Amino acid sequence: MSEKTALAPDVPTSTAWQKGRRVYVRCGYNSPLNTALRHLGAHWDGTERALWTGSTKKAAVIELVRAREERKKAVEDVKAAGRWVHIPYDAHDLRARAKARCAVYDGDSRKGWWAMRTDEALAEMQDLVTKWRQRAEAARKEEERAHQQRAAAQAAAAAEATRQAARSRSEQLLADSGRTPTGEMAELHEISTRRMTKAAALDLARTPGSLVRLADGRRGIIVDVQVWFTDGEMASSVCWHPETHDQAHWDFQYTVAVVEPADAEREQDAQAAAEREDAAALNDLIEAAADLTAPRTEGWTHLPEEEQAGQITVVRGVTRFPAGTLTLTRDGQVRWQHPGYYDSYIATEGTTSAPAVVDRVRRLITAGNRERSCNPAGQQPVYFTVTARKHRA
């Protein structure tokens, strides 16, 4: 087998060599040297992994290899000169311009960087790159603005679709209820401190289409329901429910379409208003009883039931502790008896025959037997029992 020998002292055997009557050259497939060797009639040798020609073309091959080495040195000289410019990959026209100016691309260590051959070419390419980046940035901002506009339009369309769906659902619920809407909307908020899952909370919530009565007495149909959980930490900072402050709880938020009250509801409202007015009159009377019956003395005088025309008994607080009795006697007197306050509990009573007071008490007693309650602002709840005594012959 023939030994590998050098073609010339300045040609490395790693690039070109001779074996017998064949001259071998190893080069890139698409390189200029490959093309030139093909034109020279070179053939591929799969064993040597190189192109080969006969030894008669040795001189021509040496010239082609030396030209390749000169080109490589010229490229390295251009790189060493340091006239580098970075051309973005998307700037296809700029890369084409750089190739036209015979710029050298560094695809190994500095991808995207091109070495220009002259200062003039470098200045030209830097200016072109700057202008390209400005146009690209302007286009990016325009696209971003257009994207934001499209997103805003989509969000607005989705929100409008949601509102339309809610409006249609509300209209259908109102139609199914058979009630007459007033056009007003209201919110009803309820809470629960029960331990339960979200599914259980949703089952516990009022159902859409239900009739509810708001705190101000208006009626409405529930058209939307929202349920969420508020933990203890959140409750301590945002919760407005004094009874559950610092306590974890479930919130039930209802959107209510206010409706006209039915005839029976109007009667109920009128009766409730009359009862509230009656309770307020009883409370005003009891609040003024001590002054109306002054002066008072210690101890109570027993008054037989047959001498009574009626009584108003008062208790206070959730435990309903006694807070006094106002009695109308048959001989036209008003007697106020009070059990006293903590911690002395000294029982006292006072009596008056003033016509205005007697008439005031008589009107409230003769209105009939009943029970009333009220919650004066900042005070404990008050409960009244009115009893009219029937005269026995």
Overall description:
- By secondary structure, the chain is an alpha+beta fold.
- The chain is 40% helix and 27% strand.
- It contains 8 helices and 18 strands.
- It has helices spanning 32-39, 58-81, 92-100, 119-177, 198-204, 232-238, 263-292, 355-366; strands at 16-19, 22-25, 43-45, 50-54, 84-86, 104-106, 113-115, 181-192, 211-213, 219-230, 249-259, 296-298, 308-316, 321-329, 334-338, 348-352, 370-374, 382-388.
- The strands form 4 sheets. A 7-stranded antiparallel sheet has the order 12-16-15-14-13-18-17, with helices on one face.
- Helix 7 runs antiparallel to helix 8.
- The chain starts with 15 loop residues before the first strand and ends in a 5-residue tail after the last strand.
Please describe the structure with a list of short key phrases separated by commas or semicolons.
single chain; 4-stranded antiparallel beta sheet; 18 strands; alpha+beta; 393 residues; rod-shaped
Largest sheet: 7 strands, antiparallel
Total strands: the figure is 18
Q: Helicity level, as a percent range?
A: 25-40%
- The SS-based structural class is alpha+beta
**Total DSSP helices:** 8
Identify the overall geometry: rod-shaped
Give the overall average pLDDT: 91
